[in-house]
Specification:
14-stranded mixed sheet; alpha+beta; 10 helices; elongated; 20 strands
């Protein structure tokens, strides 16, 4: 009988880990590039099916954009996008094509390149890669009227256009409308630059995929079970506030959005964490009180300035014999005079820990709520997903262990307890009824007179 080599299990496990790691690389996004310059990319650049472009390969593919004569680059950045969106959304709604302008642009421009799969870890830091490649004049386009922009003739220009976000939980028809609106923005900006006779190149991509295949989820679950690995890295690094050389505040959110007067959507995710087009100089740190101040200039049309403040305290509680950090309130100041204040419920953690919550906002359905404290706060809706914040005892510029907002008795636990109680009650009632059954103590004698049982017995 053949004997198994002692090293075989280890080799098998290593091979399985490599296979799982390769499968997990399915976390990718498409990237579309086009340029007014001819022959920007070699026709043989096409990659084989299933290949995921790494960060190093992406740098090489973007190299022609850094060496061209006219270095004007436009970056259209969306929060979510998958290559399946181009076929699924186009085919599901008949003549309503949400990518009409993009398709026409790719066909009409002198050179273009379509990368179906780029590692999302590379796109998360795409703006940093571009800024490191040269002395760009960075401009965040907010009013989308590029005809009024003054482009530098001496320095290369990098225009960053943050497209409308596809908020999680939206219906497909809403996603279609958001995609179509972003397509119109791309077409309008591209046409304005063409009419001005400017030579430029364009990158259209996203931070994370909008669709995750079932196989990827199954592989990830298998990997967690077999390899006991930690969760994947965050989509982008957290925002940090420093005093001197010491980090005193860390702030992260998967989606950070506001809605003013129930109509104007303000997505601050990209401005806060990707482009970091936010002023945090008014933030304050101390051992007992911390304020995270986020100031934005012209976040949307109609709002010239917007400041959001997170006020945290650190107090000692004798009952628990330890310090606890608490997020007491959130304040929104619009245009320097409109002040809205929200009291915060259920956001606290031991002072040595960070705080994490999947959903935080003004909705009654969220586990951590922002409760309006004045009349002006009623005009605002706040939505923060995957919130993690730490205002005290930050070590090595990293979050400490997270105290989650999910309570012990979740709705699922309550449903299980109620169901168990009902079943136990039914079982107890049934046993009680069975115990009440009695048998006859007297019987008929076929040889004697008939048995007569008085009604009183």
């Amino acid at each position: 009988m053949a004997r198994l080599c002692p090293a075989a299990p280890a080799l098998l496990l290593a091979a399985l880990a490599a296979l799982l790691q390769t499968s997990l690389a399915a976390d990718h996004v498409p990237m579309l590039l086009w340029s007014t310059q001819r022959s920007q990319w070699n026709p043989d650049t096409a990659l084989h099916e299933g290949h995921v472009v790494s960060a190093q390969e992406l740098r090489e593919l973007l190299q022609p954009l850094f060496t061209q004569n006219s270095r004007n680059l436009v970056l259209f950045l969306q929060d979510r996008l998958s290559v399946d969106d181009f076929t699924y959304l186009s085919e599901s709604y008949g003549n309503k094509n949400p990518f009409q302008n993009v398709q026409e642009i790719l066909q009409s421009f002198p050179s273009s390149l379509v990368l179906p799969a780029v590692d999302s870890k590379a796109t998360r830091y795409l703006l940093s890669i571009l800024q490191e490649s040269g002395d760009w004049k960075l401009t965040n386009v907010t009013n989308l009227n590029v005809s009024q922009l003054e482009l530098s003739a001496s320095n290369p220009n990098l225009l960053v256009v943050q497209l409308q976000p596809l908020a999680s939980g939206l219906k497909e028809i809403s996603t279609l409308e958001a995609m179509a609106e972003n397509d119109k923005i791309i077409g309008r900006v591209t046409m304005d630059l063409q009419e001005r006779g400017i030579h430029f190149s364009v990158i259209y991509t996203a931070v994370r995929p909008s669709r995750i295949s079932r196989r990827t989820d199954m592989v990830a679950e298998l990997r967690r079970q077999l390899m006991a690995a930690e969760e994947e890295d965050s989509l982008y690094p957290p925002l940090n506030v420093t005093t001197g050389n010491q980090t005193c505040i860390l702030f992260y959110a998967g989606n950070f959005s506001l809605k003013a007067s129930s109509s104007v959507l303000i997505d601050l995710t990209n401005a806060t964490f990707l482009t970091q087009n936010v002023d945090i100089s008014a933030s304050e740190c101390s051992d007992s009180n911390t304020t995270l101040s986020l100031k934005y200039t012209n976040p949307v049309d109609g709002i010239s300035s917007l400041e959001i403040r997170f006020l945290m305290t650190n107090k000692f509680y004798e009952v628990s014999a330890r310090n606890w950090s608490t997020l007491d309130s959130v304040e929104i100041v619009q245009d320097g005079n409109k002040f809205a204040k929200f009291n915060v419920s259920a956001i606290s953690a031991p002072a040595e820990y960070s705080f994490h919550c999947q959903l935080v906002g003004t909705s009654n359905l969220y586990p951590a709520r922002l409760v309006p404290s004045n009349s002006e706060a009623g005009n605002w809706e706040v939505f923060i997903s995957k919130l993690q914040i730490q205002g005290f005892n930050v070590i090595n510029n990293q979050f400490s262990y997270a105290s989650d907002c999910t309570g012990f008795f979740t709705p699922g636990i309550w449903m299980g307890l109620v169901t168990a109680i009902i079943l136990v009650w039914i079982l107890t009632y049934g046993i009680h009824m069975i115990m009440q059954l009695t048998t006859n103590s007297r019987f008929d004698d076929p040889k004697g007179p008939a048995l007569s049982v008085p009604q009183t017995e």
